[in-house]
Amino acid sequence: MPIRVVLNVPAQARLIVAAVALSTLATACRQPEAAPAASTSAPAPSASAPAAPGGSPAVPGAAVAAGQVPAPIAAILDQIKKGDTAQLAISPEDGQFLRMLVASTGRKRALEIGAAQGYSAIWIGMAMRDTGGRLTTIEYDPVRAKEAAANVKRAGLDDIVTVIGGDAFVEIPKLSGTFDCVFVDAWKRDYIKFFDLTYPRLDDGGLFLGHNVINKKSEMSDFLDRIATHPDLFTSIVAPGGEGVSISYKRRTRS
Questions:
Q1: Is the residue at 10 inside a domain?
Q2: How many domains does the chain have?
Q3: Are 55 and 86 spatial neighbours (Cβ–Cβ below 8 Å)?
Q4: Reduced to 3 states, what is the DSSP secondary structure of residue 231?
């Protein structure tokens, strides 16, 4: 006889679990692809340190989900991805997952560390259009910061997404208020520092998301250990596009 287990879990946490489950199912159902050529790229650049070549593996031919994104924005995303010779942008699958996660859990005050050319900011910005929220994204490299701002504007999201050029360790303390979502896709060895900097300002019920936690896990072992053992976090790792996204939910204060 089947046994049903009912957990007393907050509504937002249930939504997160559902999003993770959908991502896991989608990953499991993807048809196998030809193995990509081995990469010799260096770690991805950061919002806090000078650029270095390398980053997320390119996903050639991976299309934005038809019908889910307005055609003009889909064209911009495709253009960014095709021009991403340094492989800095997240995969389209990760972008779609972030959009679903942010929208379905009603995030309103998001921070992104490591904008690159604005690819992920556009995905998150589309989610914020649905929730009525706002995203602040920070990019260290001044050229990429200008490109990100231009791409966000072309996508019609500049009323929702604010692009800041500069060192995230300098710029984040200047920001006011708290965050209910933090997404980090910067220099991998700085993840633990970004976590320590932003966690005190992460709302109860907030999400801390890290990118490349599978394909670059050796470069962030201290961060991965922290989010796996922190007493006030529930953490899961999914791989919509293969690179890995960590999702850490900050438990609400218990009386």
A1: no
A2: 1
A3: yes
A4: coil
What phi and psi, each to the nearest 5 degrees, are found at residue 199? -55, -40
HSE-up of 74 (CA within 13 Å, CB side)? 11
Residues of the domain holding 190? 16-24+42-250
pLDDT tens-digit readout, 192-246: 999 999 999 999 999 999 999 999 999 999 999 999 999 999 999 999 999 999 9
CATH of the domain at 172: 3.40.50.150
Q: Which two tokens stand for residue 186?
A: 């910067």
Q: Between 48 and 142, where is the model more confident?
A: 142
Phi/psi for 26 (5° steps) reads -65, -40
Using alpha carbons only, give the angle 127, 137, 239 rounded to the nearest 5 degrees. 60
Task: Report the chain's mean pLDDT, rounded to a whole number.
Answer: 83
pLDDT in tens, 116-131: 999 999 999 999 999 9
The reply to whether 72 falls in a domain is yes
Is pTM beyond 0.90? Reply is no
* Residue range 43-82, pLDDT digits in tens: 444 444 444 334 444 444 455 666 689 999 999 999 999 9
The answer to whether position 189 is within a domain reads yes
Q: Hey, what amino acid is at 222?
A: D
Q: Residue 255: inside a domain, yes or no?
A: no
